[in-house]
Amino acid sequence: MLLLALDTATPAVTVALHDGTDVVASSSQVDARRHGELLLPAVDRVLAEAGTRLDAVTGIVVGIGPGPYTGLRVGLMTADTFGLALGVPVHGLCTLDGLAYASDLDVPFVVATDARRKEVYWARYADSRTRVTDPAVDRPAEIADAVAGLPAVGAGALLYPDTFPQAHEPEHVSAAALASLAAEKLAAGGELPAPRPLYLRRPDAQVPKNYKVVTPK
After folding, report:
1. Quick one: average pLDDT of 101-108?
2. CATH number for the domain including 164?
3. Pairing between strand 109-116 and 90-93?
4. 20 to 30 A from 31, CA-CA: which of 19, 69, 73, 170?
5. CA angle 122, 29, 62 (to 5 degrees)
6. Angstrom distance (rounded) from CA 198 to CA 104
7. What is the pLDDT averaged over residues 28-40?
8. pLDDT tens digit string along 44-66?
9. Residue 137 forms beta bridges with which residues?
10. Helix or strand (DSSP H, E) at 120
11. How far is CA 196 from CA 14, 44, 52, 79, 130, in A?
12. To 10 degrees, the CA torsion angle through 124, 14, 75, 201?
């Protein structure tokens, strides 16, 4: 097994390689505006650090969000392209699950990432491997009762201490955590879902109302 994992659903552009036993190389850079520019060089850097080639990869793992449309699609399209070119399976994992796994918490807690527009993407967990609610997008004040008294991880939790007073790191997802979680599930005989994006809301950029198409005569 040699899994290449990547995620662009948050401001972190993160890539890792997992050999079925451990993470052998990883790279993470935080830059919300340069996902497309940073992702492929990060893949090259991780492969070089591991001393291997892309054609040695046996599977792709990609974070499916939730996240903003523009950033999220960079990772998803790259993962699909690698899968088609290499003829290997592409597995999708919820980005929030990667953050939960990296937290290593064994008590109920919340993962919340920054959804912009003064909202968070969030879900509740029984422990670092068990999500108990579907991912959702809400304003922090609207979920205060649902998360009251629970520890929280993620950039969204750190942004809103009034709602998440017990917030702490990890702030952003790491591909190393996604790869480790995927390897654990696959080794146990589990099936990972296809990489279907969790957008949860419409993209920020939209066609204006009453838009008129002008065609040449």
Report:
1. 97
2. 3.30.420.40
3. unpaired
4. 19
5. 55
6. 24
7. 95
8. 999 999 999 999 999 999 999 99
9. 121
10. strand 119-127
11. 19, 25, 28, 11, 20
12. 30
- My answer on whether 90 and 116 are in the same domain is no
Number of domains forming the structure of the chain: 2
Q: CA 118, CA 96: separation in Å to the nearest integer?
A: 18
Domain interval for residue 83: 3-95+172-188
**What would the DSSP string read from start to end of 33-91?**
T-HHHHHHHHHHHHHHHHT--GGG--EEEEE--S--HHHHHHHHHHHHHHHHHHT--EE
From residue 61, how far is each of 1, 169, 179 by CA, in Å? 12, 23, 7
Residue 114 vs residues 10, 155, 201: alpha-carbon distances, Å:
8, 6, 14
Residue 85 in any domain: the answer is: yes
From the list 206, 207, 204, 208, the residue with the least C-alpha distance to 67 is 204
Sheet holding 59-63, edge to edge: 23-30, 12-18, 3-7, 59-63, 90-93
Q: Which two tokens stand for residue 173?
A: 């997802």
Q: pLDDT digits over 190-212, tens only?
A: 889 889 999 997 555 454 555 55
Whether the per-residue pLDDT at 144 is higher than 70: the answer is yes
